[in-house]
Design brief:
Number of domains of chain B: 2
CATH architecture of the largest domain in chain B: Up-down Bundle
Distance between the termini of chain A: 25 Å
Number of domains of chain A: 1
Number of strands of chain A: 2
Shape of chain B: globular
Oligomer: heterodimer
Strand order of the largest sheet of chain B: 2-1-3
Helix content of chain B: over 70%
Strand content of chain B: under 5%
Radius of gyration of chain B: 26 Å
């Protein structure tokens, strides 16, 4: 395997682990603290409830658009992108 | 050539076509609204919605007919990311999500959000770990990937078994939902509605396969999202002056919390049974809450009818952004559901808090009581006198409606919102049409996943690899028809057991498919032995847990009582009931004792108190362990396979698998 391909996969895996860490935080870790977050209330929403009902969801959506863009940049920089 | 050209024209005009379609749909709603004002009975408005929307879906299905294998199986791989996102949204959101999700949140409060999180967060895994690689692979079905990566028909067969185990009960539930929505809310006969739904489903999928299903699902998404958002947007504007329910329901939540303590003070609610809306872990303990989120997420990322949607995009790049669009379109519904729940809860709690005599209950209670969805004091709320009589039997009931007297089916929340908010019937009809669109589109996707696995994987790849194009397409349609008719027949018998098994689909897919699928891409060392072992172990442990705790709970608990995680008192009661059953005289007494014992056993049977629905919490680790240990104990996959994995990881270059009959773009 060529060095370029190796580096491509390293960068791709790096992005994967970053995204997985974010996924872990917003799927689970932040909701461990729901009780303490609920003491903060914004526009009627207790923050702990809000994170599970909307906050994490918004993060997931933004994450995926970011991921699609970022991975495409990596593909292009490493010369493995498909033709447009 | 002419056909390819017209296909291209269609694709380049998608924006225009679906804009006209959406405009036409709004026009149709307005037209029915005018008819209603002119005095046309509700029943006709309801029928108008059902038949016209199904006719439009069927028309799209017929117009998208194809005689080309690549179009039939993967829509010619030319569905733009944005539209594939919409189609996936419709594919994903089932009749139950549409109709029942808000109701679940109404009943469970915070704990219900496990479903909202689980059914959205899974797409992160789809985008990052799976979809782009499957697209590059070029498979027609998910089992196709297993066969190619793990050398042969054993892996293919296992994948087909897992696929059918998680998709069949699911499709039955969708067809059942079609019948239920049409019969409950449009006053049609249940069986007629089931077969009308079947007819619609077949017209959408049979002639054009994936191509037709894609373009009908886009149309169905538009109907379902309009139907879901419109009532609650109107409601939010009416109540809070801002037509953005997702922002305004914070105020509703604050009011709900105030009403909760007020009702308890006035004796209109019991502190013991009231679940505060925002308080976590009132239904699930933290272990079950997080286990459920995990199982739903990984299940989402493993369900074949979802994964196969990403085979249809023009490129790997589009597959990635298509997952982002999918999640966006799904998000629109799921982040609105809690608003529905909060508004309805506010309505119901205000009604109770102001002190409502049983004689003065609002009309909607009877509307849904008549069809068995609202009970007061344990009896269906059919008439005022009936309610007063039922409550009269309860000591100290007091003649006022109390929270503990009221029991609402989860399906009522979404469907009753238009009526509770005083909107015309046409909006209620629209909501029913949205529910139907959700159920039909999911049924289409599932049927195609099952039928394609049988026609492509079992028939073409395993039984008759030399079948010419024409035979393949005939076989795929015959199988589709066959599976659809069986599913509709099963649904028409209203099978309680099968419907309760739908929740199992996520765990079965998560444990059976996810480990071998992700490791197949991300770990080159994974080999055939590992994959087979992982699938058998993961799926096997899951099935053992699901079936054991549900159908053989007594023997399951006999074996595992030590680690059941149930309270000692509950286990003591199990022992007591078991002794009672052993001592009972043969005949009716024995049967009754067994029923009591089995019920208790189902409540306590399990490992560490993990509920049945989260079986993959055990299945998945076994699945991963199986793949890893099995692979490491045997020799590494051949150089060809490792090179294939390398090629799968790089977007550029030709597809890994080429179908001899498919006319598809080369990258």
């Amino acid at each position: 395997m060529s060095q370029g391909a190796d580096r491509y996969w390293q960068r791709t895996s790096g992005l994967m682990w970053t995204m997985m860490a974010l996924w872990l935080v917003f799927s689970f870790v932040i909701h461990f603290f729901v009780n303490s977050l609920n003491s903060i209330v914004i526009a009627g929403f207790p923050l702990g409830f809000y994170m599970a009902a909307q906050g994490s969801l918004v993060v997931f959506v933004v994450m995926l658009f970011f991921f699609a863009k970022r991975q495409d940049t990596i593909d292009r920089e490493e010369g493995v992108a498909e033709e447009d | 050539m002419a056909e390819a050209k017209s296909g291209g024209d269609f694709i380049s005009n998608l924006g225009k076509i679906y804009t006209y379609y959406t405009g036409g749909f709004f026009g149709f709603v307005v037209f029915l609204g005018i008819l209603e004002q002119l005095g046309v009975p509700n029943k006709f408005i309801g029928y108008g919605f059902v038949f016209l929307t199904i006719a439009v879906y069927a028309l799209i299905g017929v117009l998208s007919r194809t005689s080309e294998v690549g179009e039939y199986y993967v829509a010619g791989r030319k569905v733009p990311a944005f539209y594939n996102g919409m189609a996936t949204g419709a594919d994903w959101m089932s009749g139950a999500s549409f109709v029942g999700m808000a109701g679940t949140l109404f009943l469970l409060g915070y704990d219900g959000l496990a479903f909202v999180l689980g059914w959205t967060g899974g797409y992160v895994l789809v985008a990052i770990l799976i979809a782009p690689f499957l697209r590059k692979f070029g498979a027609f079905t998910v089992p196709d990937f297993f066969a190619e990566r793990y050398g042969g028909n054993m892996a293919r067969t296992l994948a087909v078994i897992v696929l059918i185990s998680c998709s069949f009960t699911y499709v039955v539930a969708q067809i059942y939902a079609t019948g239920l929505i049409a019969s409950r809310f449009l006053d049609m006969d249940f069986t007629v509605a089931v077969y009308a739904g079947l007819f619609g489903i077949l017209l959408c999928s049979m002639l054009g396969g994936m191509k037709a299903v894609t373009w009908t699902q886009v149309a169905q998404y538009i109907v379902l999202i309009v139907a879901y958002l419109l009532p609650v947007v109107i409601l939010s504007a009416k109540k809070f002056g801002i037509p953005v329910p997702q922002l305004t329901y914070g105020q509703a939540i604050a009011e709900i919390t105030a009403l909760e303590s007020s009702m308890i003070q006035k004796g209109l609610a019991a502190a013991a049974t009231l679940k505060p809306h925002i308080k976590p872990f009132t239904t699930y303990d933290p272990l079950n809450y997080f286990a459920l989120i995990l199982c739903l997420m990984i299940g989402t990322a493993s369900l074949p009818h979802i994964l196969m949607r990403y085979f249809t995009t023009p490129s790997v790049r589009d597959a990635r952004s298509s997952v982002a669009w999918s999640l966006f379109f799904i998000f629109l519904l799921y982040f609105t559901a809690p608003a529905y729940a909060a508004f309805s809860k506010l309505e119901v709690y205000s009604l109770i808090n102001k002190g409502t005599a049983l004689a003065d209950l609002p009309q909607w209670i009877y509307t849904y009581g008549k069809i068995g969805l609202v009970k007061i004091c344990g009896a269906d709320a059919v008439t005022t006198q009936g309610v007063i009589d039922a409550c009269g039997k309860i000591a100290n009931q007091g003649g006022m409606l109390r929270l503990q007297d009221l029991s609402i089916n989860t399906d009522v929340i979404v469907l009753s919102t238009p009526e509770i908010a005083g909107m015309p019937y046409v909006i209620a009809g629209l909501v029913a049409a949205g529910g139907l669109a959700a159920a039909l589109s999911t049924a289409d996707g599932l049927l195609l996943a099952i039928a394609n696995a049988l026609s492509h994987d079992v028939y073409y790849k395993m039984i008759n690899p030399n079948a010419p194009t024409k035979t393949r397409l005939i076989a795929s349609r015959v199988v589709l028809l066959f599976v659809a008719v069986i599913a509709a027949y099963v649904a028409s018998t209203k099978p309680a057991d099968i419907l309760s098994m739908v929740a199992w689909a996520f765990s079965l897919a998560a444990a059976g498919i996810f480990p071998a699928l992700t490791l197949g891409v991300w770990w080159k060392r994974a080999n055939t032995t590992g994959a087979l072992l992982g699938m058998v172990l993961g799926w096997g442990v899951c099935v053992y847990y699901l079936v054991g705790t549900r159908y053989y709970a007594v023997s399951f608990n006999d074996m595992w009582a030590g680690i059941s995680g149930a309270a000692p008192a509950a286990q003591a009661k199990f022992v007591e009931l078991k002794a009672a059953w052993a001592a009972a005289a043969d005949g009716a007494a024995k049967t009754a004792a067994w029923v009591a014992l089995d019920k208790q056993a189902q409540a306590v049977a399990g490992w560490f108190g993990v509920k049945n629905i989260s079986a993959a919490l055990f299945g998945m680790p076994f699945g991963f362990l199986g793949v890893i240990v099995g692979s490491l104990l045997t020799k590494a996959p051949s150089k060809e396979v490792q090179d294939m994995v390398d090629a799968t990881r790089r977007p550029a270059g030709a597809l890994i698998m080429r179908d001899k009959d498919a006319i598809l773009p080369s990258h």
